């Protein structure tokens, strides 16, 4: 009887330990992924990945399953005749990868959608898919650094992503954010609605992240909305212009 109770207690401890090792917090603020190991750390707690990470082409690859667990994201696999895709979705933010392709799609709610390019591509090895972790994590709000001393990746959640050197909040109130490969560096659409103050705060944050003084631009946006002169353009310095498209909509362009 005593031995039986000991076995039950030991089994219970194993179950608790297993839950501790495999459970990921609802918000993984701090993730450390060593190369070539199954063991990782999430919010200073151990987490066991389904398979070890590995280094290829200078990028650290992690299985789609483990990345989905880290992010508490929905992961959807699509197997078509001419392509195979993996979509990660969290809080209406989407990153879509194609196996063996270096182009991938990033969509943040309704305000941002862009085809991006990376210097490597997702892989299928056996029955498991692997993603270059940096490109997923950075587009879902993490700052990623590679520690070459202990050969690990660390991802800290900031709630922001970067484009053309600008830092953009994932939960911005700005109506539209677009980047272009040609003359226009970044384009923002601001609407004169109940969220205007929040939009202007986000505009100031985005501009300041690239050392552009936001104050004259914010002042001009408010002035243009007050005047309401349609189809007029205001040029601020050499690389910033404002276009009043309607009484309620301003297009802000930052030129290269």
UniProtKB/TrEMBL annotation:
InterPro entries named among the record's database cross-references: Cu_amine_oxidase-like_N (IPR012854), Mao_N_sf (IPR036582)
Segments forming domain Copper amine oxidase-like N-terminal: 42-153
SUPFAM superfamilies the UniProt entry points to: Copper amine oxidase, domain N
Top-level division of the source organism's lineage: Bacteria
Name under which the protein is recorded: Copper amine oxidase N-terminal domain-containing protein
